[in-house]
Design a protein that fits this description.
binds flavin-adenine dinucleotide, 22 strands, FAD/NAD(P)-binding domain, alpha+beta, 432 residues
Length: 432
């Protein structure tokens, strides 16, 4: 069997793996390879999402400070990267609405979080009901907050572009190669399905999205966590709704500790309007259709039944009630559109005829059955694993990628490159 030697192997060619590869190839002399199971890059969560560059007002700085910082920095970095490379980046803003009076306190809490997370009073504002009516006359709500520092983009295009740039700086790619396991001796021997080659590396970075917990468990890390999957489905809005609002409209979720956000009214970078996503519990990170789900169900049920945390969650009546609502909105188009009609009453479900592209979130739960609020970055001597990398993960991928690479440079796993030509970035500036 042919052997290929690299300093670093990155498992997963989504936006996170490609961002890491891009900074690693541009800032260091290390030889690197990206191992990807699909025949192209960015084929899972990185293309199956809402396409928003999120401003950090929904993230409690006490629990999600890393996510909030990455989102704040990510906006500037994506704007620059998209501008230089002529990729879509539309600064179109977002409105978050309270559909009942009781939710107004939550809006004030979001304002406070947004300011703590670095947004300014020009960028994030409270709007009373009458002010909302002036900005978005078709929206019905008690009050809202509006954020002008929010944008729409196409993360699939960005992911593919990052991978091309990484290749220009010397990174190798291995598509159609599914990581199976590795053996650790003096170096790592990585075995994959789909290729006759054996990969030898000094260091592994696990950025494999919905599969990442399995790889971490394989090296004895994060064993206290389990993952649950939630399919976010969309319906495309017909042309007649093109002028309904100027910006995307989100509504305050009732239970923010669960991954069940209310479906939004979305304006995509190319102008398409959609409602979604819901969050239907499914059995695998790739269960995009109901038939996929049945195929994967037995293995997941068996795995979950060995976790006390997951079993606790399954007995939590509030979780089950919310999950049932999500199932119903998956089966019934009317139920899904009705959730958005709470703030856009003129929508008619009969006008929606085409589903959008569904995507799957993989959320970690702990031993108590609580959802883990923040991304986890875990390491041992020869590997680093990024887990629970959920929304706004695409927004924050560039700064998170830069941070991981700078950490490896500091620890001496990588050495700085001196002669790779003009770079767009000054890494110390990014990390400030
Ligand atoms: C419905 C939905 C809406 C979202 N909306 C937004 C949004 O508006 N804004 C935002 O910022 N974020 C959003 N997100 C979150 C964002 O999309 C993700 O955080 C981000 O794409 C994660 O990137 P990733 O590279 O970690 O994962 P992925 O894109 O899933 O990449 C992981 C890669 O690893 C590969 N892989 C897995 N296992 C193996 C293996 N064994 N061998 C080789 N390769 C493997 C996969 O094929 C895949 O290409 C949304 C997510 C969802 C699901």
């Amino acid at each position: 069997m042919q052997q290929l030697h690299f300093d670093v192997a990155i498992i997963g060619g989504g936006i996170l793996g490609c961002s890491i590869a891009y900074f690693l190839a541009s800032f260091s002399n290390a030889s690197a390879v990206v191992i990807e199971q699909e025949n192209n890059f960015g084929m899972h969560a990185s293309r199956r999402n809402t396409g928003k560059v999120h401003a950090p007002f929904l993230y409690d700085p006490a629990k999600r400070s890393l996510t909030a910082k990455a989102a704040l920095k990510g906006f500037d970095m994506l704007r620059k990267y998209c501008k230089v490379n002529s990729l879509p980046f539309k600064e179109d803003g977002v409105m978050e609405v309270a559909t009942s009076e009781g939710q107004i306190d939550t809006l004030h809490r979001y304002l406070e979080w947004g300011y703590k997370n670095g947004l300014t009073e020009d960028q994030l504002k409270f709007l009373a009901k009458e002010e909302v009516a002036k900005v978005e006359p078709n929206v019905s709500c008690h009050s809202a907050i509006v954020c002008f520092r929010d944008a729409s983009t196409d993360y699939e295009l960005i992911t593919k572009h990052l991978m091309c740039d990484a290749q220009k700086f010397g990174c190798r790619v291995m598509p159609n190669s599914r990581f199976r396991n590795f053996a650790h001796n003096n170096h790592l021997i990585i075995r994959t399905e789909g290729t006759e080659k054996e990969i030898i590396a000094n260091y592994v970075i696990n950025a494999s999205g919905g599969y990442s917990l399995n790889i971490a468990h394989g090296v004895g890390l994060a064993t206290e966590y389990r993952d649950l999957y939630f399919r976010g489905e969309y319906w495309q809005a017909p042309h007649e709704y093109s002028d309904l609002t100027r910006m995307s409209i989100y509504s305050v979720p009732k239970y923010s500790e669960y991954p069940f956000l209310n479906p939004h009214w979305i304006i995509r970078a190319d102008g398409r309007r959609e409602v979604g996503p819901n969050a239907v519990p499914v059995f695998s990170p790739y269960s995009y259709e109901w038939t996929d789900d049945l195929k994967n169900s037995m293995a997941k049920i068996f795995q979950s039944s060995t976790s006390i945390g997951v079993m606790r969650l399954m007995m939590n009546s509030q979780f089950i009630r919310l999950a049932s609502k999500e199932f119903w909105s998956s089966i019934s188009k009317r139920a899904m559109v009705n959730r958005v009609r709470q703030f856009l009453p003129s929508l008619k479900s009969s006008a929606f005829t085409t589903r959008g592209v569904a995507g799957i979130r993989s959320s970690l739960t702990d031993k108590e059955g609580n959802f883990v609020p923040e991304m986890l970055i875990l390491e041992n001597d020869y590997s680093l694993h990024i887990l629970n990398y959920n929304s706004p993960g695409a927004t924050g991928a560039l700064p998170v990628g830069a941070k991981i690479v700078s950490g490896l440079l500091e620890k001496g796993y990588l050495h700085k490159s001196s002669e790779k030509g003009e770079s767009l970035w000054d890494i110390s500036e990014i990390l400030e």
